[in-house]
Design a protein that fits this description.
The protein is α+β, with helices and mostly antiparallel strands and 303 residues long. The chain folds into 2 domains: 133 residues, N-terminal domain of MutM-like DNA repair proteins (Alpha-Beta Barrel); 143 residues, Helicase, Ruva Protein, domain 3 (Orthogonal Bundle). It is built from 9 helices and 12 strands. A hairpin with a 2-residue loop joins strand 11 and strand 12. The longest helix has 20 residues. The chain starts with a helix and ends with a helix. The structure holds a DNA duplex (16 and 16 nucleotides).
Length: 303
DNA sequence: CTAGGATCCTGTCAGC
DNA sequence: TGCTGACAGGATCCTA
């Protein structure tokens, strides 16, 4: 669930607590959640590659953390700092039954929680980070890519729905289900639009909007704020503050003020759209097929 | 090569 | 109340 802005928020927050701290012990509670052997060392830095974090140690080893859908990293010391999938784990007693890995530091404890066990921590030599298959395949982040490069990629996958490409981390990295929906809504493009039908101008717009949406979210601290951890009742969520379509099913569209936000399924994912602002473009092939199918229907009705 | 669907896993919620 | 199916802020693997 955490997308690029959330992961970046975790990186920025966590480094205030764990840099230059020695790992005393790593306890693996769920075998599946920790790949390779837990290393020793002092934490020297935290880098981010798309939605993955890499924690570098002074011993020549690194820990890659991918939260996938429900992962969380929670530092608990004098203060608590939590990020990832928002849940009561942020304020609950830890460890609990969703805790998969416990990293004991000299100044506190770092918990890796993950309800669905899709996420993981993986250790390898620091000089092998760039060789990790996931990191190796990652495409550029929106601000690292030229408009030409993005447009060419859309043309190369011309039969895919545009949303599927925005979710494909090898095409463009950082977007997930929320920011893909928000981006296409802001660009007024229906998520099922075949990539090949998107004009250069619209392609440019998608790239620009994706960058804007994610920068806005990073500035807002992603969709998981530290305030939430303080348990003062204020969630201060990006979703509440800025999201215009995600999870807004049934509400009136904030742009046209007429249609209601609908939830549909695209590329196997729940997808939110304004059916009035985001009209599906169809090419002649699709239109012809549709026409043919309607003709078939008429034929059958006649029979 | 591309495109689409199943799959990993646990928990929650709507509907009967 | 209980049961059932659908679905979830991700990515990979398998198939055609």
């Amino acid at each position: 669930m955490p997308e690029l802005p959330e992961v970046e928020t975790i990186r920025r927050g966590l480094k205030n607590y764990i840099i230059n701290k020695k790992i005393r012990k790593i306890k693996v509670l769920c075998e599946k959640s920790f790949i390779n052997a837990p290393p020793k060392g002092i934490i020297k830095g935290i880098r981010r590659f798309g939605k993955a974090l890499v924690i570098d140690l002074d011993s020549g080893w690194s820990l890659m953390v991918h939260l996938r859908m429900t992962g969380q990293l929670i530092y608990d010391g004098k203060e608590r700092y939590a990020g990832g999938h928002p849940s009561d784990n942020f304020i609950d007693q830890l460890p609990n039954r969703q805790t998969r890995v416990i990293v004991e530091l000299e100044n506190g404890t770092l918990y890796f929680n993950d309800q669905r066990k899709f996420g993981f921590i993986k250790s390898f030599k620091t000089d092998q980070v760039e060789n990790d298959p996931f990191i190796k395949k990652l495409g550029p982040e929106p601000w690292q890519m030229t408009k030409e490069e993005f447009y060419e990629k859309l043309q190369r996958h011309k039969n895919s729905p545009i949303k599927a490409l925005l979710l494909d981390q090898t095409i463009i990295c950082g977007l997930g289900n929320i920011y893909a929906d928000e981006t296409l809504f802001a660009a007024k493009i229906h998520p099922k639009t075949k990539a090949g039908l998107i004009t250069k101008a619209k392609s440019n717009m998608i790239l620009g909007v994706a960058e804007r949406v994610m920068n806005l979210s990073i500035a807002a601290g992603g969709s998981t704020l530290k305030d939430y951890v303080k348990a003062d009742g204020s969630r201060g969520d990006y979703l509440d503050k800025f999201a215009l379509v995600y999870n807004k099913t049934g509400q009136v569209c904030p742009i046209c003020g007429k249609a209601k936000i609908e939830k549909i399924r695209v590329a196997g994912r729940g997808t939110h759209i304004c059916p009035r602002c985001q009209v599906l473009l169809e090419d002649s092939t699709t239109t012809n097929l549709k026409q043919a199918s309607q003709n078939d229907k008429k034929q059958r009705e006649i029979k």
